[in-house]
Amino acid sequence: MDVVRDPIPGLIRRIAVPFGLGMIFNTMFNVTDTFFAGQLSTDALAALSLSFPMFFLVFGPGIGIQTGASALISNAIGRGDDDAATQFQVQAVTLGVIVAVVIGVALFVGLPALFRLYGADAEVLAGGLRYMRVIAGFAVPIVLAQVVNAGLVASGDTRAFRNILLAMAIANVGLDPLLMFGLRIGGVQVVPGLREAGTALATGLLYTVAVVYLVLRGRAAGCYRGATLRSFVPVRSRMGELIEQSAPATLDFLIMTLGAFVINYFVAEYGRDAIAAYGAGLRIEQIALLPMFGISTALATLVGQNNGAGRIDRVNESFSTALRISIVVAILILTPVIAASGVLLRLFTDTAEVVRIGRRYLYIQAVTYFSYTLMSLSGAVLRGIKRPAMIMWVGAYRQVAAPLVVFPLLASILGWGLDGVFWGIAIVNWTAAIWTWIYSRHRLRRIAADAPTTPPG
What distance in Å separates the CA atoms of residue 403 and residue 421, rounded to the nearest whole number? Predict the structure, then answer.
């Protein structure tokens, strides 16, 4: 695969399809957790719904570091500097371990206060603590599973990611019920029923396996070529570049987590059924969006390598092609999801009110769908050209600043109730998406204007 010379539509397909499938398997992993939590009780389903943004406090930094490292590695590959590519991958692992330890400890201590912020009490609070305390204990492998994939993604290899997530999704179908409900043989409790802690334990163990697999694949692909144990000692210059590129993406994910707190706070005012419906609807929405994340990942790789090679013409072509493909994919995905929304929601719960609210949420989110895509693709361009700071500011706007104004305006002042929160999500995301697209086009025009010539193919 030659990212700076091969036809762009084919490259997007070859990178996006495995990654998109991997993300589908990853979300099916999460859907399995949600499904078995619903089988346990509505309280357990609500507990996992409230835990979702807290899980991102652990998961998000790994994605952020992977994103920053991939941008630096892909640019290094594009300019032919393999030594720098290796150094960025190794230093990213070190940064990931440091960040994971700090976040894991802080989260473990602060969990009760975070759950009570939602007003969680009784069994919902207990279930949430059972789940998230185990997740916090596995913070290092959860973060590293993302970070060690940076070099593979930067080189255009997303198959390893797909393979391990498929294996994890299949294994989780068996591990979740085994560890949540336990196993009795002949009247003897062979495996204790750990309830919500069981699904968290399954998650932690499977992410640990993923780290081992992805490191081995990365070594085979040359991502760690020439690296020794000494290479993992922090190097100020490389670590500084990594932090500069990773911090905006990491903060964007953390802001996204804060935004999830904000949404959950407003939704929680309408009761347990509303929280359960939002959690189930969000899982379905995530599945529908996963192909778009595959396309944006492919775009970031294409932009990074071609930017490093000085091919701004191919950067622009990649952006335009990705947008056209995304429009077609959006139409193909939204149609069946909306038509089968009731059936999909009943996979999580039989409670009629939860299904009714969940369908309402999905209908409104259909209007919002392409805004996520436009933001994701524009953000991929900004990361690929190593200008990610604006992503963080847009995230602060759409996750915190705007919702704190728009949600109460629509829900309370205008009297739209829960629909006001859902329509508020649509308004906030579309305004953010349009601005991000305008800014990314502006940055590309600036780079094109500063480039003296376009190197030949």
Answer: 8
Contact 303, 318 (CB under 8 A): yes
Helix (H) or strand (E) holding 343: helix 341-345
- 173-230 pLDDT, tens digit per residue, is 988 888 888 888 877 777 877 887 888 899 999 999 999 999 999 999 888 888 888 8
- The helix/strand/coil state of 204 is helix
pLDDT, one tens digit per residue, over 322-376 is 999 988 888 888 888 888 888 888 877 778 888 888 888 888 888 888 888 899 8
Of 174, 180, 165, whose CA–CA distance to 47 is shortest? 180
Q: Give backbone dihedrals phi and psi of 85, rounded to 5 degrees, phi first.
A: -60, -45
CA atoms of 127 and 192, how far apart (whole Å):
16
Sketch the domain layout of the chain as residue ranges. Answer: 8-450
| CA gap 67, 88 in Å, rounded | 12
Torsion over CA: 238, 244, 248, 251 (sign): positive
- The span from the CA of 181 to the CA of 190, in Å, is 11
Q: In 10 A of CB 244, how many CB atoms?
A: 14
Q: What is the number of other CB atoms lying within 10 angstroms of the CB of residue 169?
A: 20
Cα gap 13→421, rounded to integer Å: 36
Instruction: Report CA 215 to chain centroid distance, whole Å.
Output: 20
Other beta carbons within 10 Å of 108: 15
H/E element, 118: none
For 60, the 3-state DSSP assignment is helix
Residue 425's Cβ-side half-sphere holds a number of Cα atoms within 13 Å equal to 25
Structure tokens at 53: 């943004």
Q: Is the pTM of this model over 0.70?
A: yes
Q: At 220, is the secondary structure helix, strand, or coil?
A: helix
